[in-house]
Amino acid sequence: MLPLDELQLWQKLDSAYGDAETLPELILTLTKTEDSDVADEIVWEIIYHQGSVYQSTLATVPYLVKIAQETTNVDLKMNLVLSLGTLLTGFDSTTDISVFFQDNSEAHNSNNNEGSTDKKTQQQITTAFMQAIVDFKALVNDTFTMATALDDVSKIYFLVSYLVSMGQHQAAALFNVCSDSDEFIVACPNCEQETYLWNEEDGLKVYKTDPVCTNIDYSTDIELSNSDSNSNLVWLENAIDRIEIETLKPLMPYFKGSIICPHCQQSILVFHGLLNAYGSSYPPCPHEPKW
Question: Where are the domains of the chain?
């Protein structure tokens, strides 16, 4: 991991507010105090501000995983597991970490930082980050029994963390966006038009246009299925049952079902359409997008 006592290295990394000079002290403070507010400041204000990720994100995640592994403070442990799950949703096996260091010198000079990181430091950061992803999987497995005590929304975020740990990043992106389970969007793989699923008293209903933006609209039903022959969602159903997410359990037959796209009249497997809508938007976005 990038040494916390080598401040000059952190000064060369970008963050939400310029360089990452403040992060070593904050990480040390979090280690000593186990204060969840400090964890939130690190994640949501500095290394994952408004969904953007930075070089400092890569350098900090290994420390957060290590703290979560070692702490006996249940609140902090779960806080970090849920936060890291959201943050890591965009990092799958295809993610090119080197993109975060491209045009490094020019970007840092524009931010008045202390120059660019060298190749050795970049490799050090990358290696520790990739190991942290492996360690995160073990961390999630170790906290499963704790997750059942969470409220249902927090359980859904734990589901996100679990899916990330299992390499199901597209599904993680879906539930990260739809954590309230009230509304979903299906993107037809045939015509790419969006269809809306609303969670109403009698189940998920299909709308051609967003009911919020349309005064008059009518709904149709999803063709339900309790079989996994088409959608093969046993892995998801088992996870939801194990975490005891009561708000998602009744939705599984709908996720396994199919609809007729109201735009092109072709049949769509619901879960495939959900992944098509949400899964394609999950790659991490560096603060100055290069992809």
Answer: 7-142, 183-281
Cβ 19 vs Cβ 121: under 8 Å: no
User: Strand, coil or helix: what is 140?
Assistant: helix
Strand, coil or helix: what is 287? coil
Q: Of 177, 226, 222, 180, nearest to 202 (Cα)?
A: 222
The answer to whether 164 and 239 are in contact (CB under 8 A) is no
Cα torsion through 121, 123, 129, 132, rounded to 10: -110
| Dihedral of alpha carbons 100, 103, 104, 106, sign | negative
Give 3-state DSSP helix, strand, coil % of the chain, rounded to 5.
55, 10, 35
Residue in the block written with tokens 């501000």: 49
Reported as a single tens digit per residue, the pLDDT across 163-219 is 999 999 999 999 999 988 889 999 999 999 999 999 998 899 999 998 888 766 688
Return d(Cα 276, Cα 273) in angstroms, integer: 5
For residue 223, the 8-state DSSP code is B
pLDDT, one tens digit per residue, over 44-63 is 999 999 999 999 999 999 99
Q: Which two tokens stand for residue 60?
A: 């900090």
What is the chain's Cα-based Rg?
Answer: 21
Please enumerate in sequence order all residues whose Cβ is within 8 A of that of 3, keeping only pairs 6 or more positions apart, or say none: 9
